[in-house]
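question for whoever is on the cluster today: can someone run the full assembly for these? two chains, 392 residues total. i dont have access anymore since they changed the login thing
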Amino acid sequence: MNPQRKRRLLFIGLLIAGTGTAAGLALYAFNQNMMYYYKPAEVVSGEAPANTTIRVGGLVVSGSVHKEDESTDVSFVITDLHSNIRVQYKGILPDLFREGQGVVVRGRLNKEGIFVAEEVLAKHDEKYMPPEVADSLSENANGTRPQ
Amino acid sequence: MWTIFHRWASPPYFYRQSTRLLPWLSAICALLIIAGLIGGLILAPSDYQQGESYRIIYIHVPSAWMSLFIYMVMASSGAIALIWRIKLAEVMLVASAPIGASFTLLALLTGVLWGKPMWGAWWVWDARLTSELLLLFLYLGIIALYNAIDDKRRAASAIAVLALVGVVNIPIIHYSVQWWSTLHQGPTVTKFGAPSIYIGMLIPLLLMALGFMLFYAISVLLRARTELLAREAASRWVREMLEEA
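^ ran it for u. tokens below:
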């Protein structure tokens, strides 16, 4: 490789290393802001800001969903398997809202420690399978693992 | 290896070989996409959570993969163009940009359509969606910068530098769903360990991904040939080729 090409290669290496370092440092500094939601444990321990609108993400606890008759009021508990938060919501739930599945709720914590949500988004996981496979998986899991 | 590289970098050789390659690529691409669509839209079972709606992944996921892959091709071509001043690398860089932008837009739009019924929102500003939108702007910036400079060789050097600066966004897009909490789900296929997707759903997805890859190869060859002819219109090999025809 002639010296001129070597110099250009070095320039490209430095360019990529430089932008990589700058982006890495910036993202590290803004790490908390890059998070789309807090975990229930962070809300309960007080790490998440209080008295302001935040997003919290967790799994909907099976059996915790209560729907009011003749209204769209709904309440459910979300968990990160360490802490639980009860959520109140008035409105239409997305198609993927299920017990045992992930959701991200936006709203604020009231004085009683109940999270009053203005918006509920379903968070899909990365698993894709036909219903029969899902059924046989949950049958196999019954008894060996608490649901 | 180096002799093949050098031979392909010569415009007349590239032009002649790509003429012979294109019909084959087109036939294989059509077969793959037809097989992938039949497999994905008809043969694959419905999903246990999303029902039929999940089938948008047969467009969304290959488009998103291509949006990253084409950017990597552009950054590599940019590096080759800057170091060795090879005309063909410049041409590949320029020819790839609109195709990459289209795949990025397709990935974003199919995501928007799927997001409303499934998540409950058309768009959210989480790390994955935001970084992919940034990729679209990078592509558009590269196209605009190239068109803003009249001297096409200088324009190619400028966009090569821009493409290399933007390459930092590629790992950010890929790892965004692991580094930060996002509404977008984590990786299903591109991760260590077995893919968390049923095999009957995975095979059509991989067929579509290969089909999209060949579609890119075909479109980039066609665009690169046009760009080469435009740049080399006055050269001897173009004149000789026209006289033969």
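summary bc i know u wont read the tokens: The interface with chain A takes residues 45-50, 53-54, 57, 79, 82-84, 117-121, 124-127, 161, 164-165, 167-169, 172, 179-183, 185-188, 196-198, 200-201 of chain B (CB under 8 Å). The mean pLDDT of chain B is 93.
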